[in-house]
Each structure stands twice: as structure tokens, then as C-alpha cells.
User: Fold Tubulin-like protein CetZ from Dehalogenimonas formicexedens.
Amino acid sequence: MKLMVIGLGQCGGRLADDFITLQKRAHDFRKVEILTGVYVVDTDASSLRGLSQVPQKNRLVIGENKTRGRGVGRQSEVAAQIARDEGFKVIDAIRQSKRFAESDAFLLVGATAGGTAAGCMPVIAEILKERFRDLPVYGIEVLPFEHEESLEKINVTNTAYCLVNSKANMDAVFVIDNQRYAKKGLSWSSNISEINRAIVEPFYGLLCAGEEKKRQHIGVSMLSTSDVQSMLSGWTTIGYGKTLIPMITLPWDKQGDETTSGRKAMEEAISELSVQCDTKQATKAMYLVSAPEKEIGTDLVKYLGEFMKSIAPEAPIRYGDYPVEKGLVDVTAVLSGFPTFEKIQGYFTSMDKQLAEMPKASEVQKVA
Ligand SMILES: Nc1nc2c(ncn2[C@@H]2O[C@H](COP(=O)(O)OP(=O)(O)OP(=O)(O)O)[C@@H](O)[C@H]2O)c(=O)[nH]1
Assistant:
């Protein structure tokens, strides 16, 4: 599956950078292409200067006449208006991408608490849907850390605004809860870099599998681009788990059955889902197991299918196996089509309370 990635705001820009790293890995190690282009869009020119991978010509500053390139200072409604006025610049830029015609979908990436991405993502999604009716529009939306929710009400208001409008304009929204990725004992910058790598990693196999051309890497059951597209809708969560395969097994090493590594990887993928959820409410599910061919036995395939059915009993389940030599078994699990997530409801409730306390209806209320 080949994506046209558009990163919005500072967080979206950094994640776009990490998607380029994935693309390079796919190109070097799997000899496949998984992106047709990567663009970043910001109201703050200085954020764009911090990026390392996205080509200069693909970095777009919008709203300069309003903000002089200094950002919208968390005001998502200002960013939304800028996107309405200047969204055509984004469309013009991506259309010039040499491989645009090969795109299977758009992926908009950004955080919900700041102003730029929260305001722009839903508007850009709407414009893309109008202009390119055949291409699905997906979002990766990063929720704030818990401590940020209590710091400023605007973090919650922006988040609620962004979520409600993205849901209306996107085919599926991958909800990523920063708090679930936060690791203690790391510096802020290394923590964010690690979180970003963890956010993009699950997409690697999922995107590569459908693009594989080498016969030895084509699984018995392939998870094609159309499989992935049909299993994505509305609120979505993604998880990734991996188990290293020991290089040498000594005679006295405890023998597990042949499914042990795959089971552990699947259990980790589900416990590491990107947002806390009741998996039983998923209405669509898919998973991809990727491992050396000899590790993907019939028992493992059966176990993984039964496991998935037990946690998402109402969902149709698509799966794929991806035989690649890499010293580990990994599983990417995607659960989609949720009616809501508890975390999202929390934002809506909190926003309702804030609106009730305000003397006048705000723009947010009108849009919601
Ligand atoms: N995972 C992750 N979260 C980030 C990153 N950068 C910022 N955030 C989170 O994103 C939110 C702030 O969003 P930003 O991307 O900085 O804001 P913006 O969209 O650029 O909007 P403005 O700064 O108001 O123009 C906060 O919740 C941060 O914790 C990042 O690189 N990775």
C-alpha cells in the first residue's frame, strides 16, 4: 500500500520525518516503495526548520499573511480558517509529486492539542475528499499527555474539536494516546523520538506486505491494499508486538511449542494498542504476522485467528502472513470501526462542560 503522507504542525512534521525513515528502510531492505510523497504543513516556519528528512521543497508554510510565519499560538479556529483559505496550496504541491498517481490513500498526521494540526487536519481532509473522491483519507491523531490536559483547557478543547471534525471528514482515524507511549526515565527529547518511532513502526509491515514482489516473501494469505482499506473505518487503534527468535538453541534450553513466539508477539500487540479500548466493540479487525517462513506454522495461524476472534467477536477478521528472514516474529494488529473510545468521550464531556460555562456559543460548538 502506498501512502501520500501530509504532516501538520510540529508533531505531524516530526512523524512525517519518521515515515520517510520507514520508506528508506522499505526501499533498502524490502526493495519496495510505500510512500508516494511526504509533505509537511505548518503555520510556524521555525518548526519546519527542525526537520531532518522531509525535503525543503515539500515544507509548506501557510497563513504567513496572518501569522508572519510565527504560528497560531494554539488557536485551532484560526488555523482552520487558514486551511480553508490556503488549502489549495497543499493540493497544488501534492499534485506535483512525481508519483502522486500511484497513491492508494492519504494519511494526515498531527497532534490534537496544538492549534495548527487540530485546526488544519479536518479541513485539509475535507478538501482532499472533495478533490480526490476515489482515494481514502486516513488520519493519525496524537492525543495530549495527561499532564497537558490539566495545564490548559485549550488542549482539551482543541482535541475535542479536532476529533469530532476529523471523524466527519476522514475514512478512518488512528487514535494515538501519547500517555500510553510515555516511558519514565528518559529525557524529554529522547522520549518524544522514541514515542514517534513507536507510533510509526506498526505501519511498516502493513504497508510493505501488499507491495512485495519477491516470490519467497509472498505469504500464503496476503494482506492486500484492498484488504487493509476495507478493514479501516472510523475510530481505529493499532498495536505492534515482537519476539526475538534465539539465534542458537542449546540442548538444555526450555522448549516452547512452535507457536510461543507468535503468541507472545500478538499478546504484546494487543496490550500495546495505541489507545485504551474495549476490543469487543471493534467492528473490523485485521492482523499481519511477519516472521521467517518456518515460524509461521498452521498452529500459529489457527491460534492467532482464534485469539483475535475472542477479543473482537463481532468483527470480521482479515489476516496476512508475511514470510521474511529477520530474526524475529512480529504482529501488527488493527481494530477499527469503534463506536467511540472512553478517552474520546472524556474530551467531549469536558468540552460540553466548558461550553456550558461560557456565556456565548463558540466556533467549536457550531462546528461540532
Ligand atoms: N508523540 C508526539 N507528540 C508531540 C510531538 N510534538 C508535540 N507533541 C504533542 O503535540 C501537542 C502539541 O502539538 P504541536 O504539534 O506542538 O502543535 P501544532 O499543531 O504545531 O500547533 P501550534 O503549536 O499551536 O501551532 C502536545 O500534546 C505535545 O505533547 C512529537 O514529536 N511527538
